[in-house]
Amino acid sequence: MQPSLAGIYTIGTTKLGDPRNYPTIQDAVDDLYRKGVTGAVEYELTDAAYSVGNAGGSSPALDLTARIIGVDATNTITFKPSLARSINKGSIVVTLNSGNGVGILFGQNATPSNPFTVQFEFPTDPQWANTPGFIRFDGGAQKSLVFELNATTPFRAPFYLGDGSHDIAVKNSIIRNAASATPSYASSLPSINFVNNTFSYQADVRSGSVTYSAGIVSRQKLPLGRDGNNSERLDTIPGSNNAFVNNEISGFGYGIVSMGIGMAIKSNVYQGFYTKGSQISGNMITNVRTAGIFTGYEDGAVISGNRIYNVGIQATGGTNVDAAGIVAGGVNRYNNTNLKIRGNEISAWWATCGRAVSVLSRYATRSHRSRPAATRTSRTFRKPRRSPTMRSGEFAANRRRRTCRRSICSRSAAQRSRGGIRSSRRL
Fold first, then answer.
1. In degrees to the nearest 10, what's the CA dihedral of 381, 384, 390, 392?
2. 291, 323 in Cβ contact below 8 A?
3. Collapsing DSSP states into helix, strand and coil, what is residue 309?
4. CA–CA separation, 421 and 352 (whole Å)
5. What are the pLDDT digits (tens) for 133-188?
6. What is the H or E stretch that residue 310 is in?
7. Residue (of 345, 275, 276) closest to 304 by Cα position
8. Which of 251, 22, 261 is nearest to 146 (CA)?
9. From start to end of 2-122, where are the E strands?
10. How far apart are CA 136 and CA 124, in angstroms?
11. Residues 236, 238, 240, 246, Cα dihedral to 10°
12. CB-based contacts of 44: which residues, under 8 Å, 6+ apart?
């Protein structure tokens, strides 16, 4: 009988031989599943570099899905830099080697890849497949943690919050591709279809290579289980209270993508299973193909204080590219409710043909709260006195109409010569 975990542990080679030290991140996570916790657990990373996962396999680099015994709002799990490493920015590089494009995976899972999960002891009991949440990755004030995804797949997500993910936090971290990995700027988001009174969810990867990539993905769906029919009777759990704060993200199709379940039929009644209470704040997102942030089927999300720049063809190449700073719904029928979008700085975005907008909001049930301030080449927009219902095709900020000429959306010959539209606003 071994005691459960509680308190501070270290991970790395600096303290080899110490009974509260683990040589690798995977060793620490294996013990977490084996023993569970009886108190809050903090893992301090002491080395300059770590490598986890197998780029030649089919699993995520690090699997944190399913139940970890004892974890709750009090008994949280935190990965952070050691005091010595926390002084400098980017002092710890964690390479996530993934064969399926997913770096660190959270959420409900009937078939987790970690062999020490309690789910394998009770495979027919759905409660053990649920995630306890309350897992945090925090690089500290200096952003000492760097997460680099080493993958060759078009679909990529260094952090992926799957079904039922709640109370997960990714903070103060630098998220990018590994130097040896060619960036993927794929940006085709999956849709939700309703056929024969059944909701079906497109896979992240469709038709071989039709897919998307993002530094952080939060995507919840109706559970399928092992056989695709949810024979285990897994719980339908919407995402909630996830926080993506003060990160630096670059080199993907999107910076952050958050998509809830949406509508579902439960007990023969249509019910909403929107992701609730997401916080996307203070992030710096750059060099992305389509948008800095996308949200769909979110309720009460706060998108604030983000700086988004270098979006579109000028930064990433490509053709037939729409570009936006923030997209709230409007793609594949996604919608949102009670969004609060405020204090974001968006600049330098280029599109070839279609749209080049700062904030695109469609199918929203309420207007966004924004506090824009004028910057160069921008206008000041007043906050509306009321929050009227937004109709399909309306934007939370002003939309400049553009025409498509010779595959370049533009308003002047000077802008065409720069390869698209460039603007700067604070929203």
1. -20
2. yes
3. strand
4. 8
5. 999 999 999 999 999 999 999 999 999 999 999 999 999 999 999 999 999 999 99
6. strand 307-312
7. 345
8. 251
9. 5-11, 21-22, 37-45, 49-54, 62-65, 77-81, 92-98, 102-107
10. 29
11. 120
12. 8, 9, 10, 11, 80, 81, 82, 83
The number of beta carbons lying within 10 Å of the beta carbon of residue 200 is 12
413 CB contacts (<8 Å, ≥6 apart)?
none
Q: Which two tokens stand for residue 389?
A: 């219902």
Could you tell me which residues come within 8 angstroms of residue 56 by beta carbon, excluding any fewer than 6 positions away? 99
Structure tokens at 192: 């939700």
Q: How far apart are CA 51 and CA 179, in angstroms?
A: 14
Nearest CA among 310, 313, 321 for reference residue 287: 310
Sheet strands (E) in 99-247? 102-107, 135-138, 145-150, 157-161, 168-171, 173-177, 192-195, 198-201, 214-219, 243-245
Q: Give the span between the Cα atoms of 226 and 205, in whole angstroms.
A: 18
Question: What string of DSSP letters covers 210-266?
Answer: B-BBEEEEEE-----TTTSS-TT-------BS-EEES-EEESSSEEEEEE--EEEEE
User: How far is the C-alpha of 321 from the C-alpha of 52, rounded, in Å?
Assistant: 34
Question: Burial letters for 92-123: b for 16+ Cβ neighbours within 10 Å, e otherwise?
Answer: bbbbbbbbbbbbbbbbbbbebbbeebbbeeee
Instruction: Indicate the pTM of the whole model.
Output: 0.85
The torsion angles phi and psi of 120, rounded to 5 degrees, stand at -75, -20
Q: Hey, what are 33's tokens?
A: 């599943």
Asked if 366 contacts 389 with a C-beta cutoff of 8 angstroms, the reply is: yes
Distance CA 99, CA 103 (A): 9
Neighbours of 413 (CB within 10 A): 8
C-alpha distance from residue 179 to each of 123, 149, 266, 366, 400 (Å): 40, 9, 46, 42, 37
> Taking the alpha carbons of 132, 43, 247, 250 in that order, is the dihedral positive or negative?
negative
Model pLDDT for residues 72-113, shown as the tens digit of each residue: 999 999 999 999 999 999 999 999 999 999 999 999 887 889
Identity of residue 364: A
